[in-house]
Design a protein that fits this description.
The chain is built from 18 helices and 14 strands. By secondary structure, it is of the alpha/beta class. The chain has a domain at about 155-200 and about 495-585. The chain has a 6-stranded antiparallel beta sheet with strand order 2-1-4-5-6-7.
């Protein structure tokens, strides 16, 4: 699918009609389009226009993207027209969404045209056509995204933010909904069955228990559904607020915020380091008394070593005697040498018999003595091992270690105080340059974060209660089935319930199998891109989801180990998030344009180069919204990496801003591809 043309009117900084013609893909390998603009000129507004054009107020609030001067006029209108060409179906799709101000109300209209023919039907039907023929809203963020979305995905380390989108892409949502429908039907059958049971005195008590459990289950499930809907809503609100936060500040505020974030990260690391030093100090102070006993312990060690040597000599001596006695006894019993087989003379036999008799007389309890020595040796060896370990522990520290750690603790406390003061200074500075809006948004994000945590905890508790009640319900149902009356109505209901259970189980088995296979394919595709982008190719094997039911990211090292993801740097998390977006995109059967806004700014030059190489190898139409200094000979954010995909650039556009009239226009230009 190819975005051929985009026309907007009175949207954000674009006053009047603005048109961008991308055209069809007409040159082999020429699939990258670049739109340059300085901060505040309207790059992000183009992304907003695409979202609003395709999905309306569900994606962007209409009143917030209306041009601020035009919206004051009576009868003002704003529209977005998007024309796509699908080379798979060989069809052209035009989406025309319009907003007209009528008094204090903004009315919206939507028109969908396929190959010149307008679709009839209500707005909901037309919206369904857009999501069926072009791209579903839930996965659009993997095609149209900005640096802030990559950061958000990195902060969340995947998780719930991608769950719905991935399952929609895998075609699994419909199956989950079918399982929920079957559960609802089963509930109705169970209610009928309980009604029959209540009529039977023999089963009334169990039926009443079942009724109570079923009511609780239904109540908990409804509660959980409400909580999950609320969770989804709040997560979407958090994403939107973070996007607003990224757009609300001027560049200076963003830099200060970035520096403050870095200081806060540093503060967390310093606090962790302080806790580690405290732990070591506590361990040293706990064992410091051993230093006082060090000389006594060394003396005891030497005593035990001598004792063990003495016992070892006694043990060897007794073993030699025991062996000699056994040898003589066997020789005299068999009348031949047990070793060489030689038959002894009668004189030798008499002498050997006397020797054996003398040995047995002198050592009547040799076996018990050996056992006793073995036990004594084991006991002393245990003492010796423990003492040896204590001495090893003593070698690892000294009083000077305690002194050094206390110096380090003082230094780290001083550094923490310095960083905290820096953070306070940054906060004060932000307040002085209009931080109230940013602070307000951050406060809302913080509140949402707390509310999401509380909802997740409630959701977890409800899940556990539902699981427990399900088990109790199954137990009661098994008990009822043993005394099942032979009424045809009940037998028929039981058969239906068993049939629904069998279908649900089959659906669940199919889901598990599909999730395992398809999720592995997605993560494999994402891992391959991750290894192309990361600067740790020799260290990492790739990344995966942390568990079958979880969509959190987990890096895997080449030796098979899995590092704690909370210790992974934020930059690496961004690379992983971007790899997942591109991996899911490449795996998807939907070949929509990839449109990114100021993607390269915070990434290292090495990663930027690798992204450029990946983009140059892709088949999708790629539209890059790129930061460019508006001053004469001003640099672009992709200046250094342009050589890696310059040959793939099809067209370039530049946004120019008339600051007197406060409006932006777009013109075709030659900046990189024209060199």
């Amino acid at each position: 699918m190819w975005l051929q043309k985009m026309v907007i009117k009175n949207l954000k900084p674009y006053r009047g009609r603005v048109e961008i013609v991308f055209g069809r893909r007409y040159l082999q390998g020429k699939h990258i389009y670049v739109i340059y603009g300085d901060n505040g000129f309207g790059k992000t507004s183009l992304l907003d226009a695409i979202y609003w054009g395709l999905f309306g107020k569900r994606a962007r609030k209409t009143q917030l993207i209306f041009n601020d001067k035009e919206i004051e006029r009576k009868g003002a209108e704003m529209f977005v027209e998007l024309t796509f060409y699908d080379d798979f179906s060989n069809k052209t799709y035009t989406i025309f969404r319009k907003a007209v101000k009528a008094g204090s109300i903004i009315q919206e209209k939507l028109e969908v045209i396929i190959d010149g023919e307008s679709i009839t039907g209500d707005v909901l039907y037309k919206q369904d056509c857009i999501e069926e023929f072009l791209i579903p809203y839930e996965i659009s963020k993997f095609f149209f995204f900005d640096a802030e979305y990559v950061k958000t995905l990195a902060r969340e380390q995947g998780g719930e933010i991608v769950k719905d989108s991935v399952e929609l892409l895998l075609g699994l949502k419909a199956i989950r909904e079918s399982i929920e429908d079957l559960t609802s039907i089963k509930g109705e059958f169970e209610r009928q069955r309980r009604k029959y049971f209540m009529e039977e005195n023999n089963y009334r008590e169990i039926a009443e228990k079942l009724e109570n459990i079923s009511k609780k289950l239904e109540m908990y499930r409804k509660r959980r559904e409400r909580i999950q809907r609320e969770l989804k809503k709040k997560r979407e609100e958090r994403i939107e607020l973070r996007r607003e936060l990224a757009e609300s500040g001027i560049e200076e505020i963003k830099k200060i915020l970035q520096r403050r974030d870095e200081l806060e990260s540093k503060l967390e690391l310093l606090k962790e380091g302080r806790e580690e030093i405290k732990r070591k100090l506590e361990e040293l102070c706990t064992n410091i008394h051993l230093l006082i006993l060090k000389s006594e312990l060394i003396t005891a060690e030497k005593y035990l070593e001598n004792k063990l040597k003495k016992l070892q000599r006694e043990k060897e001596k007794l073993r030699e005697l025991s062996f000699r006695m056994l040898f003589l006894k066997r020789l005299l019993d068999e009348l031949k040498c047990p070793i060489c087989g030689k038959i002894p003379l009668e004189l030798d036999i008499r002498l050997l018999s006397e020797e054996l008799e003398k040995l047995e007389k002198n050592n009547p309890l040799i076996s018990k003595e050996l056992t006793s020595i073995d036990e004594e040796y084991s006991r002393y060896y245990g003492f010796y091992s423990q003492l040896k370990q204590k001495l090893e522990n003593i070698k690892q520290f000294s009083t000077s270690d305690v002194y050094e750690l206390r110096i380090k603790l003082r230094e780290i406390n001083e550094e923490i105080n310095r960083v905290q003061k820096d953070i306070l200074r940054k906060d004060e500075l932000l307040k002085n340059i209009g931080f109230s809006l940013v602070s307000s948004i951050e406060g809302k994000i913080s509140d949402l974060q707390r509310e999401i945590g509380e909802l997740e905890e409630r959701d977890k508790n409800l899940f556990e209660k539902i699981e427990e009640l399900e088990q109790r319900k199954k137990k009661l149902e098994r008990e009822l089935k043993r005394f099942l009356p032979k009424k045809s109505e009940i037998l028929e209901l039981e058969a239906k319930i068993d049939f629904i259970d069998a279908i649900k189980m089959a659906f669940k088995d199919y889901l598990d199998e599909m999730i395992e296979k398809r999720r592995n394919d997605i993560i494999k595709s994402s891992s391959e891109i991750f290894l192309k982008l990361t600067n740790k190719k020799d260290e990492y094997r790739g990344f995966e989801f942390s568990s079958q039911s979880n969509y959190k990211f987990q890096i895997v090292c080449k030796d098979g180990s899995k590092p704690n993801m909370d210790t992974i740097s934020y930059g690496e998390m961004e690379v992983m998030a971007l790899s997942f977006i591109l991996g899911l995109n490449m795996y998807s059967q939907i070949k929509a344009p990839i449109i990114t806004d100021t993607l390269f700014g915070r990434l290292s030059p090495y990663v930027q180069e690798n992204i450029a190489k990946v983009f140059s190898e892709m088949d999708n139409q790629i539209i890059l919204l790129v930061l460019k200094d508006d001053r004469p000979n001003g640099k672009t954010e992709i200046e250094l990496i342009a050589p890696f995909f310059k040959q793939n650039i099809c067209k370039e556009f530049i946004i120019k801003r008339d600051q007197i009239k406060r409006e932006s226009k777009i013109y075709e230009c030659k900046i990189l591809a024209g060199d």
